[in-house]
Amino acid sequence: MKLYDSVRAPNPRRVRIFLAEKGIEVPRVMVDLASFEHRSDEFTKLNPFRRTPTLELDDGTVITESVAISRYFEEIYPEPPLFGRSPLEKARIEMWNRRVELGFMTEVQAVFRHGHPGMATHEIPQVNEWAEANKAKMMASLRLINDQLGEVPFIAGETYSIADITLLCAVDFMKPTKIKVPEDHTHLWRWYEDVNARPSAKA
Ligand SMILES: N[C@@H](CCC(=O)N[C@@H](CS)C(=O)NCC(=O)O)C(=O)O
User: Fold this and answer.
1) Which of 52, 54, 106, 126 to mutate to test ligand 1, by most ligand atoms within 8 A of the CB atom?
2) How far apart, in whole angstroms, are the C-alpha atoms of residue 167 and residue 104?
3) Of the chain's two ends, which shows fewer C-beta atoms within 10 Å, N or C?
4) What is the mean pLDDT of residues 27-41?
C-alpha cells in the first residue's frame, strides 16, 4: 500500500491527521505539487484527476478523495470511530463534514487559488473576482461555524470526528490567504486550541 502525499496541501493533510488519530502507518510517496509532479504521465496514469491524496493498494487498486480514503481506513480500523457510532452521530458528522468541506473549505481554497499570483499556473483560468467574491462567503461560513462551536465541544457534537479534521485543515489553510480568524470568534478559538493541541495536528 502507498499513500501519495504532498506537503503544505490541505487535502493530503486531512488523511495524514486521520491516520495519526487511528495510529496507522502507511508508506508514503511524496508528490511535489509546486513542480507539477502530479501532472507527470506516471501520476496521471494512477489518478487521471491529478490530485493528492491518492491511495494505491497492493493489488493496484487506486482510491482518491480524502473522505473516501479515510472511509476505507475507518472500515478496516473502526477504533476510534471518526465517522460516528450511532445512526444520528453518523448523520451529524456527515452533515458537518459536508458543510465544512463543500462550503467553508471550498471558499478558502477559492480565495487562495483564484487570488494568489503563485497559483495562476495551477488554477486555469484564474479569476481574481472569484477570489474576492469568496472572501465574504468564507467569513459568513466561519461565523456559522463559530456559532455551532458555542453549542458543542466539537463541530459535529460531543466527540472529535473527521469533520474536525476537515475544519482544522481548512482554518489553517486561511494562512496563505492572509485573512485571520476574527478575535471575537471565541468559540472557534477555543475549539482550535483543543484540536490543534492533539498530537495528530502535527501530521
Ligand atoms: N476533493 C479532493 C481534492 C484533492 C485536491 O484538490 N488536492 C490538491 C492538494 S490539496 C491537489 O492535488 N491539487 C493539485 C492541483 O491543483 O493541480 C480530496 O478531498 O482529496
Assistant:
1) 52
2) 8
3) N
4) 97
